């Protein structure tokens, strides 16, 4: 997950190939730190997004337009004044710096031909968009940086533009073997860190990849490698830099699949987003983007040697713009849903923690009632043998005719034998009533815990705001959220997942407890098959049988869906219960999504749903 110098080089190559000679048609500033340029070329129209966000600096071509504010900000107006309808002459990157220059030619107010330089610096919290004249003097920037903010460089109108040198890093495109060995292998730190702290534009991800290609331990101290290992690593580094120089880029995203078999997808040059949707590789289908790169990441390949329950899918992209747009779209979706569900999550987890504490207390109290039978026996034995107890005795021995053993019964010396017997009977009666009441309460509390755990599980699975609407409605109906009577009915647009099995059978997956009930007791017929992960919260999965017996592979596909859409997502193997729907019943007064069944089949299966595809509707 590194927008490093190599990815920037890939983007620069793409932009240079597509936008050199382009005319700037429109300039918009949809966000305070973001520009959207509409560019016209002989081959068509492009939109270029340039973001100097401190948390998410980006640059890529996009087909998506963004609404602009009613009044354009000052920086946007300045750019419109100077470079509207300007022509892009050159797009270049200095070394492997995370910087891209746009040289733009335009006519000024006097009709004279001028040149300007629009620079985007993609450096995390120091990211900026800077507009300079042909002498390198700053005209303005989207973020002003004064001497109070930075002692290294001021970014203000009238100041000269230069690249701030804050670290003594070398240019990886112009290094020699002697310099490489002297720079990297003299440092008493892990090898990967020694590489990325020595060279500009090399991220920790690329440093790890380089170590993997050279079969070198990335955590081993750099100054402990012998001359042969140093030479081998340099040759791998040289080959990698040759790919950058010759623009041999392979933009790709690494998707994480918990509990699946590792595999790589062929680079066929097709549209990756369509390919993802076609093959079910999306967040909904169980793939999470974890890294992206413009060079092949062989350490995530089939024979990478990474021993883990998590496998990785390498998905190629035709361009770095598509790669970045896809990656950050999915990442933003997950982040946005996490933010939207934070209030619901807090309510559910608070209630869940309270119920768990209550449940533990009730179980402890229930355990204390287990000694009630002892008091009943004490009372019976005193009634049976109490005629021989002397007044004022503190105990007496009696034969327990239930076990045929002698026991010692404690007595209250101030009470008669009959009064002691009644005392034990009273204790027995109190504990019996307590046991009966607690047995019912613990069942209710356990059902509430199971319900809240299922709600939390479905919040973790939510992929859109619509998916959270029914979860919120469920918490409201359960009394955890106060209902505001606005007179408007809550609009439910979320629908269960609809997958197609390898054999063409319809598979339906509930996204929450309400949808689980809907699938099981409304959509499914008696001969359809019902699947659920054993003993944990999760989705009900319905395999539509269509009046026939589905093949074994359809059962396995349904079971994998039940495994993935459960609390055990990510486990290597998950036990799944399955049964004909006619054997699944819902007890009166049961919580949403709660069912019972008494005869079922079971199978243990993985979570690999990569062979399944989502239906188009």
Q: Explain this structure to me?
A:
- With 617 residues, the chain is α+β, with helices and mostly antiparallel strands.
- The protein is 36% helix and 21% strand.
- It has 14 helices and 22 strands.
- It has helices at residues 5-19, 74-83, 177-184, 191-196, 204-213, 227-245, 272-279, 320-340, 342-368, 372-385, 417-461, 465-477, 513-523, 552-564; strands spanning 23-31, 34-41, 44-51, 58-62, 87-92, 99-107, 113-121, 128-133, 138-141, 252-258, 263-264, 288-293, 310-316, 395-400, 405-410, 497-500, 506-509, 529-533, 541-543, 574-580, 601-605, 613-614.
- The strands form five sheets. It has a seven-stranded antiparallel sheet, with helices on both faces.
- A hairpin with a 4-residue loop joins strand 14 (395-400) and strand 15 (405-410).
- Helix 9 runs antiparallel to helix 11 and helix 10 runs antiparallel to helix 11.
- The protein is elongated and about 125 Å long.
- Mean pLDDT is 87; it is low at 258-286 and 303-309.
Tell me the fraction of residues in β-strands, as a range. 15-25%
Shape verdict: elongated
Q: Can you give the mean pLDDT?
A: 87
The class by helix and strand makeup works out as alpha+beta
Number of helices: 14
What is the fold's blueprint, element by element?
Layout: H1 5-19, E1 23-31, E2 34-41, E3 44-51, E4 58-62, H2 74-83, E5 87-92, E6 99-107, E7 113-121, E8 128-133, E9 138-141, H3 177-184, H4 191-196, H5 204-213, H6 227-245, E10 252-258, E11 263-264, H7 272-279, E12 288-293, E13 310-316, H8 320-340, H9 342-368, H10 372-385, E14 395-400, E15 405-410, H11 417-461, H12 465-477, E16 497-500, E17 506-509, H13 513-523, E18 529-533, E19 541-543, H14 552-564, E20 574-580, E21 601-605, E22 613-614
Parallel strand pairs: 11-13
Antiparallel strand pairs: 1-2, 2-3, 3-4, 5-6, 6-7, 7-8, 8-9, 10-12, 10-13, 14-15, 16-17, 16-22, 17-19, 18-19, 18-20, 20-21
Helix pairs in contact: 9-11, 10-11
């Amino acid at each position: 997950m590194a927008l490093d110098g190599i990815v920037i080089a890939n983007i620069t190559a793409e932009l240079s190939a597509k936008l050199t000679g382009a005319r700037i048609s429109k300039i918009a500033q949809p966000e305070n730190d973001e520009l959207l340029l509409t560019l016209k070329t002989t081959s068509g129209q492009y939109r270029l997004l340039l973001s100097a966000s401190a948390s998410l600096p980006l640059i890529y071509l996009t087909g998506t337009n963004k609404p602009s504010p009613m009044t354009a900000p000052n920086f946007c107006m300045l750019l419109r004044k100077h470079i509207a309808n300007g022509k892009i002459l050159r797009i270049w990157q200095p070394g492997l710096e995370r910087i891209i220059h746009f040289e733009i030619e335009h006519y000024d107010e006097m009709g004279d031909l001028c040149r300007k330089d629009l620079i985007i610096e993609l450096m995390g919290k120091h990211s900026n968009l800077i507009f300079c004249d042909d002498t390198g003097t700053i005209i303005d920037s989207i973020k002003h940086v004064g001497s109070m903010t930075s002692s290294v460089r001021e970014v203000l109108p009238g100041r000269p533009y230069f690249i701030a040198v804050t670290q003594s890093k070398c240019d990886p495109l112009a290094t020699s073997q002697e310099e490489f060995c002297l720079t990297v292998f003299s440092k008493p730190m892990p090898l990967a860190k020694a590489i990325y702290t020595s060279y500009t534009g090399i991220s920790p991800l690329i440093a790890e990849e380089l170590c993997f290609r050279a079969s070198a331990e990335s955590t081993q101290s750099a100054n402990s490698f012998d001359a042969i290992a140093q030479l081998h690593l340099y040759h791998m580094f040289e080959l990698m830099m040759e790919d950058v120089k010759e623009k041999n880029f392979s933009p790709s995203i690494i998707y994480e699949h918990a509990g699946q078999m590792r595999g790589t997808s062929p680079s066929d040059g097709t549209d990756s987003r369509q390919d993802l949707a076609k093959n079910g590789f999306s967040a909904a289908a169980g793939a999470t983007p974890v890294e992206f790169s413009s060079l092949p990441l062989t350490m995530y390949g089939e024979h990478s040697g990474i021993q883990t329950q998590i496998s990785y899918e390498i998905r190629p992209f035709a361009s770095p713009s598509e790669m970045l747009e896809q990656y950050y779209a999915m990442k933003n979706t997950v982040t946005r849903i996490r933010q939207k569900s934070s209030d619901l999550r807090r309510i559910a987890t608070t209630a869940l923690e309270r119920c768990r504490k209550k449940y533990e207390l009730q179980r402890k109290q229930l355990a204390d009632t287990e000694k009630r039978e002892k008091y009943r026996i004490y009372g019976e034995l005193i009634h049976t043998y109490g005629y021989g107890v002397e007044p004022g005795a503190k105990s007496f021995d009696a034969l327990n005719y239930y076990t045929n053993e002698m026991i010692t019964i404690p007595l209250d010396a101030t009470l008669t034998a009959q009064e002691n017997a009644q005392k034990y009977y009273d204790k027995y009666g109190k504990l019996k009533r307590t046991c009966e009441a607690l047995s019912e309460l613990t069942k209710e509390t356990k059902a509430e815990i199971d319900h809240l755990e299922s709600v939390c599980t479905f919040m973790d699975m939510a992929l859109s705001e619509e998916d959270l609407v029914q979860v919120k409605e469920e918490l409201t109906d359960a009394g955890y959220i106060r209902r505001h009577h606005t007179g408007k009915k809550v609009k439910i647009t979320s629908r269960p997942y609809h997958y197609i099995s390898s054999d063409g059978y319809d598979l339906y997956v509930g996204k929450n407890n309400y949808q689980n009930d809907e699938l099981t007791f409304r959509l499914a017929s008696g001969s359809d098959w019902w699947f659920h992960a054993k003993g944990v919260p999760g989705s009900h999965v319905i395999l539509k049988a269509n009046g026939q017996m589905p093949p074994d592979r359809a059962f396995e596909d349904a079971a994998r869906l039940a495994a993935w859409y459960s609390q055990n997502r990510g486990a290597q193997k998950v036990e799944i219960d399955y049964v004909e729907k006619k054997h699944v019943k819902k007890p009166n007064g049961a919580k949403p999504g709660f069912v019972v069944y008494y005869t079922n089949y079971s199978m243990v299966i993985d979570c690999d749903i990569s062979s399944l595809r989502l239906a188009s509707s």
